[in-house]
């Protein structure tokens, strides 16, 4: 059974009297414990797809299931419980600039529970150690590099021990070295914690490095989905061929 399932999902936005089909008839499954890539050019619907998983967007048609539950049918309290089990990180990090690294991670715990125990404070320090930031815990975002900021965001996303980490272009604002560090960290978290990682990217190189399976989007349609080996070395769609061209011998 898939941990995440899209059943014939379409999303249409209406903006100033015009409509935009961000996704059209997408069906796919993401298995527990895998690193799943979503790739496509700008505007192909990648962010919309990933935002549907934690109901930051709702489908115009079709259903999205997490753990066998149609998340469109959840009441507010149930939805917030599901959301605590879904971490998310973004290209622009989304850290609170007036809080230190440690306070940013603590804040995620405070949102999810009424009071904090000593064990919670210890957990935050453990998370900061896990992402390699023990020496930077008391720094503000402005005092951290891009790669370090994304590590804080990852620690914060893990604060409530999620099953799934959603990553929307997590390395697009980073230089090659910081990109490598963040990808290595995501692969390690997948391996050590069994975390299911969904990663949006426009770079096939990111997919090649850490994904098990990948979905290729083109103008809101699923052009292709399969293992990375299939999609990279034996693509059936022009979209996948175009994205992987520079990686072939
Ligand atoms: P990607 O992440 O692949 O660049 P998006 O999912 O952000 O693509 O967007 C897909 C399409 O939907 C684009 O044409 C975009 O302009 C449109 N879109 C996304 N969000 C909105 C919104 N809130 N209102 C109107 N149009 C939107
Ligand atoms: Mg996007």
From TrEMBL:
Keyword Cell wall biogenesis/degradation: no
GO molecular function, a single term: ATP hydrolysis activity
Signal peptide: none
Residue ranges of domain ABC transporter in the record: 4-244
Source domain of life: Bacteria
GO BP term, example: amino acid transport
Keyword line: Amino-acid transport, ATP-binding, Cell membrane, Membrane, Nucleotide-binding, Translocase, Transport
Record bears the keyword Ubl conjugation: no
Gene Ontology cellular-component terms listed: plasma membrane
Family according to the record: Belongs to the ABC transporter superfamily.
Function statement: Part of the ABC transporter FtsEX involved in cellular division. Important for assembly or stability of the septal ring.
Protein known as: Cell division ATP-binding protein FtsE
Whole-protein coverage range: 1 to 249 of 332
């Amino acid at each position: 059974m898939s941990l995440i399932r899209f059943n014939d999902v379409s999303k249409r936005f209406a903006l100033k009297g015009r409509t935009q089909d961000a996704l059209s008839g997408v069906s796919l499954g993401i298995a527990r414990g895998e690193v799943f890539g979503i790739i496509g050019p700008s505007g192909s619907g990648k962010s919309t797809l990933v935002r549907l998983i934690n109901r930051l967007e709702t489908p115009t048609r079709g259903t999205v299931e997490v753990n066998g539950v149609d998340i469109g049918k959840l009441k507010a309290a149930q939805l917030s419980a599901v959301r605590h089990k879904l971490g998310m990180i973004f290209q622009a990090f989304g850290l609170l600039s007036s809080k230190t690294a440690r306070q940013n991670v603590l804040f995620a715990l405070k949102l999810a529970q009424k009071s904090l125990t000593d064990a919670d404070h210890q957990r935050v320090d453990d998370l900061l150690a896990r992402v390699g930031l023990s020496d930077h815990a008391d720094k503000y975002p402005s005092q951290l590099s891009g790669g370090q900021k994304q590590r804080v965001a990852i620690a914060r996303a893990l604060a409530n021990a999620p099953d799934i980490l959603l990553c929307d272009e997590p390395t697009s604002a980073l230089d090659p070295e910081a990109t490598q560090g963040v990808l290595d960290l995501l692969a390690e978290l997948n391996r050590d914690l069994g975390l299911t990682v969904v990663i949006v990217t426009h770079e096939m190189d990111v997919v090649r490095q850490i994904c098990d399976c990948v979905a290729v989007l083109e103008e809101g349609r699923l052009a292709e989905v399969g293992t990375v080996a299939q999609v990279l070395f034996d693509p059936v769609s022009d979209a996948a061929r175009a994205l992987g061209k520079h990686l072939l011998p």
